[in-house]
Amino acid sequence: MPADFDGEYWDRHYGGGAAHRVRQPTVHLVTEVGDLAPGTALDAGCGEGTDAVWLASRGWRVTAVDLAATALERAREHAASVGADVADRIDWVRADLTTWTPPGKGFDLVCAHYVHSTAPSGTLLRRLAASVAPDGTLLVVGHHPSDPHPGQPARAAEAHVTAEEMAASLDAGWDVLVAGTRTRPAGGPGGHGSTARDAVLRARRRR
Ligand SMILES: C[S@@+](CC[C@H](N)C(=O)[O-])C[C@H]1O[C@@H](n2cnc3c(N)ncnc32)[C@H](O)[C@@H]1O
C-alpha cells in the first residue's frame, strides 16, 4: 500500500493553502451526467467538494465522502458560500471508502474522480459499484497510464488505470456505456499547462 495516499497524505495535501482549491467541476462529470435527471448521488473521494456542489446545484441530493478532514472543511465552506439551498442538499461524511458502508438501498449516481485508493486494484471500484441502485449510473475517472502528470504523487503506478481495467472489475449486471481514454486541459492542481489523459468509465446497473 503506498503510504503516499493515506489519510495523513491527503490532510497535508489540502492543508497546503488556497493553491489547492479547484472551483470547476470535473469535465467528465459535466459531460456524462449533465443529461441525467437528478436523484441521489454519492461523490466518493469528494475532496474540496466542487463536484458535489455542482451536482447539488443541479438538484441532486448528494452524499459526499472523503478521508481528509481538511478537504471536508473547505468543501462545507464552499457549499455554504454558494447558498443554503445547495448546502442543504449535501451530506458531508468523513470516512474511508474502503471500509465505509453507505446507508440506504443505493444511489442513482455514484461518481469517483481521481481517487487514488490505497486499496488493491479493483477493490474500491467493486465497493462503489455495489453502492449503485438498479438502473443507476457509475462514473469513475482516473489518470490513464499515458498521462504525463509530472511532479505529482499521482504518477505512482497505483494511481494510474485504464478504463478497460476498470470495466473488467464489473460483473455481468452492468451495461458499460463509456470505457475509454479522454483528454482535458490540465490546468490547476496537478496540472501542467498541457493536456491530461484520463480513463473514463460510465456504466449503468441493470434493473
Ligand atoms: C486527487 S483527490 C480528488 C478529489 C476530487 N474527487 C476531485 O476530482 O477534485 C483524491 C481524493 O480522494 C480522497 N480519498 C483517497 N482515498 C480515500 C479513501 N479510501 N476514502 C475516502 N476518501 C479517499 C482523498 O482524501 C482526496 O480528497
Automatic annotation (TrEMBL):
GO terms for molecular function: methyltransferase activity. Keywords: Methyltransferase, Transferase. GO terms for biological process: methylation. Residues 42-136 form the Methyltransferase domain. Pfam families: Methyltransf_25. SUPFAM superfamilies: S-adenosyl-L-methionine-dependent methyltransferases. CDD domains: AdoMet_MTases. The keyword Ligase does not apply. This is Methyltransferase family protein.
